[in-house]
Task: structure prediction
Amino acid sequence: MITIVGLGPAGADSITRAGWSAIESAERLIVRTLSHPAAEQIAAVREIETCDDIYDQAEDFAGVYERIADRVLTAGSDGPVVYAVPGHPAIAEQAVALIRERAAGVGVDVEVIGAPSFLDVLLARLGVDPLDGGLQLLDARLLPRPLLLNLPTVFAQVDTALVAGTLKGRLLEVLDPEHPVLIAMDVGMEGEMIDPVPLAELDHAAVGPRTTVFIDPGQVGLPGLLAISQRLRQECPWDARQTHHSLARHLIEEAYELMEAVGRLPADAPGGEPDVPAYLEVEEELGDVLLQVIFHSMLAAEAGVFDIESVAEHHRRKLISRHPHVFGVDGGPPIEVDGAPEVTRNWERIKQVEKQRESLMDDVPVAMPALARAAKLQRRAASVGFDWEQPVEVLAVLKEELGELADALGDTEAVEQELGDVLFSLVNLARHLHIDPEMSLRQAVDRFSGRFRAMEAAGDLQGRSLDELNDLWEQAKSSRQ
Result:
């Protein structure tokens, strides 16, 4: 039998009567740490064991929690034991969660006796009602990404300058440096301190084992964008009159602007040293595309069909079903795959079943840019093995198609067909070389435009001979690389 007792946020007077009864009658008492007022007071009147030695030996906190859980479970297997923790056992006590999870497997019963936590005292000090608008409680050492901030938020365990600095950096991604934060230390204890500071000074404040940070972020980040979009739909005349069809062209335009920004990233991005200015441009264009997704979802919500949350959930489930090599099938183990090509083949097979296609060529939009449509159809054909194995084989086909194009010169209809075959083969070659043909052509057009502008900068091009123009072209190539 293991009885887990909360020691409350401060001295022994915050322990409940049930907790005191368990502690006083315990034959064996283990406390997580002696570094707590109540634990010190108990140690003064009876024999206890502590887990402070584990903190000194383990390499990280995960290891600490594992070893504490092992120690308590072993003790509970030998006989009744009381395990006492600061605050409430269900708040910021990962070792307790591990004990409760594993206890049944080793035939040990667990009883939990609660106590006030630092959170109870902190909310009382701040006058915050968690049911009035909500509250978010996070471990500052395990910050999620993205860090969604749309509720008043308590960050517990800001116990080192490094954790405080990391928290500051993450918060500055969405909040201004002047945004107020509250730093609370030793809440409920003698020497309690609650100080407001600007976010920019968070990592300069004193922190310790019982430091907590509280912020009221307002509406920022993704939740803030959703809130702003809903308000604009209600109050802005332009937003209010939009329909799915009126917005369609904006989505296409924004997607092209995003493609242009992505094209400015290094070819190996995200590998290598990040080009920050280029990434910032991508960030801006991604925001424009995201707004279109949110807008269409808002309109669908008005129709009572779906909203942005159900869009995300639908896609989450789709990703799981299309990655059986990661998530398994119907709760089973992941299937084995032989590299990325088999992943692609499985993906297309699953999609074909989901969408009830009669052919792999179905539901590829005719309105897609021809290069992108060619690549998509080729990938689908390749998913059943209808593909060349090596780029050199595709290159040979391309040479054949160029020969057929040369033979067709003079026959307009035949030239158009053969030229299409050449372009289709070029897309095939790009696919085998893992190059996006649209992006490659876009970059080639940009290079041509830049070099031609350089030729124009050298003087008036009208009246020059072809040889002179070619010389200017070569100069532009050599100067602009």
The chain has a mean pLDDT of 91. Strands lie at 2-6, 29-31, 49-50, 81-85, 110-113, 136-139, 153-156, 180-185, 193-198, 211-215. The domain at 2-116 is CATH 3.40.1010.10 (Cobalt-precorrin-4 Transmethylase; domain 1). The first strand starts at residue 2 and ends at 6.
